[in-house]
Amino acid sequence: MHTWIDMANFTPWSALIGGIMIGLAASILIVGIGKIMGMSGILKSSLVSLPRFSWQLMFVIGMAITTWLYSLLIGFPELEMGQPLWKIIVAGLLVGFGTRLGSGCTSGHGICGISRLSGRSITATVLFLFSGIVTATLFAMV
């Protein structure tokens, strides 16, 4: 098994635009209301606040709507997971466990924490990457 990038269809512009949009959203959220754009915390808060209406719930609904609109306008590329379903489920559970253990997710620490020069977030992001590399290596052996 190997990973590769289809260079004939690789478009760095969509990645650049997406990164700029994520950065703008994170900046607006922290400057506007002083909140960090960590998806695990936002998702948890949106579920905990139900049935009350909150900014976290609006954020999650906005992500769902924009994903749906993107699929209508642009469409999604065909994806091939290349792994059995059980590996994907185990990987998802490990990510959830790591999110709780690390007091936040990759978006909270990696995008927002590092931009604030948080030592905890820098350490967490390095550990996320290291754990991902080790996990991917081990799963490739199974």
Automatic annotation (TrEMBL):
Keywords: Cell inner membrane, Cell membrane, Membrane, Transmembrane, Transmembrane helix, Transport. One of its GO terms (cellular component) is plasma membrane. Signal peptide: none annotated. It comes from the Bacteria. It is found in: Cell inner membrane. It is a multi-pass membrane protein. InterPro entries: Sulf_transp_TsuA/YedE. The keyword Coiled coil does not apply. The keyword Transmembrane helix applies. The chain crosses the membrane at residues 12-33, 53-73, 85-102, 122-141. Belongs to the TsuA/YedE (TC 9.B.102) family. This is Uncharacterized protein. It comes from Psychrobacter sp. (strain PRwf-1).
